[in-house]
Design a protein that fits this description.
The protein has four helices and seven strands; from the N terminus they run βααβββαβαββ. The protein has 172 residues and is of the alpha+beta class. A hairpin with a 2-residue loop joins β6 and β7. The protein is globular.
C-alpha cells in the first residue's frame, strides 16, 4: 500500500468510494452521492487551502482517501482540523483507514494545527471509532439522534486528539 497526495485523475475512484458510503452507510449524513464534478470542486477547495487530501493505493487502484480541513471557517478555529476518511468496501478492516489517519495527523501537525477532531456518523460505527481511539483520539461528545438516515435516527460521535503541543502554549 502506498499513501500519497490525491491528484485530479484520482477523483473518479474517490467519488465511487464515497458514493458507496453515501448509499450504504451512516458514516456520512449525505443521502445523494455527489457527482464527480462536485467531488472535483471539493478536492480543489481543500488543496487550495493547502490542506492534505490523501489516497491509499495498491495495484487494484484507490483503496481509500482522507483529508483534513479547518474545523469551521471562523478564525478562532484556525488551529483545529477536522478529518474525513473513507475506505473502499472490499478492503475495510485491513489498516487502510488507520494508515491514512496517521499521515493526516503528521500533515496537520506540520501545518501548525494543534487539535484534530473526528466527526463520526453513527455511534455504531465501531470501525471508525476504533481506528481513531487506537491513534489517541478520545471521545469528546455525542449528539444523540442528530441525523436521520435509512429510516432511523443516527448519532454523531465527536472524538478529539491534540497535535504537537496542543493547547499547552500560545501559538507563534
Amino acid at each position: 500500500m502506498d499513501i500519497r497526495p490525491a491528484a485530479p485523475a484520482d477523483i473518479p475512484e474517490i467519488q465511487a468510494i464515497y458514493a458507496h458510503h453515501v448509499l450504504h452507510g451512516a458514516g456520512t449524513f449525505e443521502e445523494v452521492p455527489p457527482s464527480v464534478e462536485e467531488m472535483q470542486d471539493r478536492y480543489q477547495e481543500i488543496v487550495g487551502h493547502g490542506w492534505s487530501f490523501l489516497i491509499a493505493t495498491d495495484a487494484t487502484g484507490v483503496l481509500g482517501y482522507a483529508y483534513f480541513t479547518q474545523m469551521r471557517g471562523r478564525s478562532a478555529y484556525r488551529y483545529t482540523a477536522e478529518n474525513s476518511i473513507y475506505v473502499r468496501e472490499d478492503v475495510r478492516g485491513q489498516g487502510v483507514g488507520k494508515a491514512l489517519v496517521q499521515q493526516l495527523l503528521a500533515d496537520a501537525t506540520a501545518a501548525g494545527f494543534r487539535q484534530m477532531v473526528a466527526v463520526i456518523g453513527d455511534s455504531e460505527n465501531v470501525g471508525s471509532i476504533g481506528v481513531h481511539a487506537s491513534l489517541g483520539f478520545q471521545r469528546a461528545g455525542l449528539l444523540r439522534g442528530s441525523g436521520f438516515k435509512f429510516g432511523r435516527w443516527v448519532d454523531t460521535v465527536y472524538m478529539q486528539r491534540a497535535l504537537g503541543r496542543g493547547d499547552t502554549d500560545i501559538p507563534d
